[in-house]
């Protein structure tokens, strides 16, 4: 399965967390952006719900960081 670049995933995770913290149900623009970001995370990780997408994205980011750390040694 194709997986988005770790930098893209990191940006999406950070955007999702920022929007989730700002979403209080009163601003439909934020709610829409949160839905769109959740959808993009799901598509980018091959998952069907945002919790799984966040877990998969974080695991891929960590694996990439570990590989980069190992390559630098």
List the helices and strands and how they pair.
Layout: H1 6-22, H2 28-45, H3 50-72
Helix pairs in contact: 1-2, 1-3, 2-3
Task: Provide structural commentary.
- It is built from 3 helices and no strands.
- It starts with 5 loop residues before the first helix and ends with a helix.
Entry keywords:
mainly alpha, 3 helices, 73 residues
Distance between the termini: 29 Å
Q: What proportion strand?
A: under 5%
Structural class, judged by helices and strands?
mainly alpha
What would you call the shape? elongated
What is the number of strand segments? 0
Helix share, percent: over 70%
| Overall pLDDT score | 93
Low-confidence stretches: none
Main sheet attributes: strand count, strand direction, barrel closure: none
Spell out the helices and strands N to C: HHH
Summarize the structure.
The protein is an all-alpha fold and 73 residues long. The protein is built from three helices and no strands.
């Amino acid at each position: 399965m194709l997986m988005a670049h770790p930098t893209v995933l990191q940006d999406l995770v950070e955007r999702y967390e920022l929007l989730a913290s700002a979403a209080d149900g009163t601003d439909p623009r934020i709610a829409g952006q949160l839905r769109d970001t959740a959808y993009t995370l799901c598509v980018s990780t091959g998952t069907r719900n945002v919790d799984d997408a966040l877990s998969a994205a974080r695991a891929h980011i960590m694996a990439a960081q570990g590989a980069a750390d190992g390559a630098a040694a």
